[in-house]
Amino acid sequence: MHQTGTNEYTVLRPAKPQLTYMNHGVYVVCNTATRQVFVAKRIDMQRGDTRDKAVTERDALMQIKRFGGSNHIIDLIETFWDGTSPASSLILEYCDHSESTVAGHMTQHLHQSSRIPEPQVWHVLAGLIKALCFLHHGMNIDIPGDEAKRDWNTICHLNIKPSHVFLTTKGRNNAFPRVVLGDFSNSISWYDIKRGHEDRGGHIRGTPGWLPPELANPSLGDVRGRYGMPTDVWQVAAVAQVMCRLTPEPVQWLADEKHPCGRHYSAPLNELVSALMAGSLDRRPRAQDVLGILQEEVEMRGLSFYLR
């Protein structure tokens, strides 16, 4: 049984995949009153590293929720920690697709020796770029005429990879499941970056193998101040690359050579992913810069770009 300040939840089963920083586990739970199904993250608050990650994730998701949320970002249902108990709970939206994440979907295709269809790669790319527009500017692309929020504190995810991209049949409007970005434990806000908190004691944020050139290459010097929106843009494109090639990590030189996705995928997809993975920060587009081409390519393939 999980209990927050206002609700009780019955554990149905452990969730897959388990997230590494959550010492007390991740579970699929059911609200005992409403019978709705959610995911509960139980965090060991006695360890400083897990407590910091939990607070980071909670604060980011609470800000997102306060501004209305996005169809492409995991929804925080409620959170509870009294400041003294050894564990806290994050109750989150449950993503019900059979493979659960893009990583699981890739594994299925590997086992079947089959390629992921290009329309689905465009679909995932579009969902993640729309998530970035909300994180970076507070813009909900699925709401007509929505604009950047004046008082928005930019959130940078910094750890986008297939295991953090969830899939759900709930609320979808295409043949493919809705794309939902989760796990904000490595995220950082623009206010924190301005205060110089982005290096967190000199430790690299994110996952080795999933860092853009400006962070992965020590010859480029101090990483301080290099985290930010371009990190997220590169990682979103890297997810598209590994979906096409079914590899565990992205390969930068393939993007530099203008064929990150390979010959089985179209020139427009290779060109866009290559641009988003540009090694030079001044050549890497912003998320909102590629909305037009994404809408065109998605709709050309008979899919709906907007999620109403």
List strands and helices in order, with pairings:
Elements (H helix, E strand, L loop, with lengths): L1 E2 L4 E7 L11 E6 L5 E8 L3 H19 L9 E5 L6 E7 L8 H11 L5 H20 L17 E2 L8 E4 L9 E4 L6 E2 H5 L18 H4 L12 H17 L6 H5 L10 H10 L14 H10 L8
Antiparallel strand pairs: 1-2, 2-3, 3-4, 4-6, 5-6, 7-10, 8-9
Helix pairs in contact: 3-6, 3-9, 6-8
Summarize the structure.
By secondary structure, this protein is an alpha+beta fold. The protein contains nine helices and ten strands.
Question: Can you offer a commentary on this structure?
Answer:
33% of the residues lie in helices and 15% in strands. The strands form 3 sheets. It has a 6-stranded antiparallel β-sheet with strand order 1-2-3-4-6-5, with helices on one face. The two termini are 35 Å apart. Helix 3 packs antiparallel against helix 6 and helix 6 (229-245) runs antiparallel to helix 8. A hairpin with a 6-residue loop joins strand 5 (76-80) and strand 6 (87-93). It is built from 9 helices and 10 strands. The protein has helices at residues 48-66, 102-112, 118-137, 190-194, 213-216, 229-245, 252-256, 267-276, 291-300; strands spanning 2-3, 8-14, 26-31, 37-44, 76-80, 87-93, 155-156, 165-168, 178-181, 188-189. By secondary structure, it is α+β, with helices and mostly antiparallel strands.
